[in-house]
Amino acid sequence: MLRAARRMAPGAVLVSLVASLMAASLIGGCGFRLQGSVALPQSLAVVRIDTNDTQSDFYVGLRKALLAAGTRVEEDRKDESIAVIHIITDNSAERILTVSTLNVPTENELTYTLKFSVSLSGHELIAPEEHHLIRDYSYSESAQLAKERERAILSEALANDLVSVVMRRLSSLSGASSGAVQ
Known about the structure:
α3 packs across α4. 36% of the residues lie in helices and 31% in strands. The protein has a single domain, classed as 2-Layer Sandwich (Double Stranded RNA Binding Domain). The longest helix is centred in the last third of the chain and has 28 residues. A five-stranded mixed beta sheet has the order 2-1-3-4-5, covered by helices on one side. It starts with a helix and ends in an 11-residue tail after the last helix. It has four helices and five strands. It is an alpha/beta fold and 182 residues long.
């Protein structure tokens, strides 16, 4: 970099430096954030995740995302003063899309379904919302183990995409005060 700067005219170095600073200020000033970092409102500083399945890809991803956003996740079911994220539906399903002439599946569809709501002190901040994500993938009997692994990876990716949807939805509550309905 220094060698290249020495070969450039002094005015070109200054123009390059000014352009770099302007680009950096534009990126910072437009609300640019690194992927995965979400600012949550103060009313979501402490939350409880109400779900039946604490081993699902979605639950694990949501818990990580909340912790990364600086939210404390409580397990205490007695405290009614904290926000509660209700996971009503969290499942994935697979169906066969196409079969070969020998009646062997060749393409499958993986669907991940999530239904959630958020409440705080008995007031509903987010009414129940349902989201579906669908991905197709090919199937081969000769690579059955690899395709099972591919299915697991796709399911995890769909769950992570849904985590992003929920986190963006939670960040949209920034104007909501405790007890206000959005």
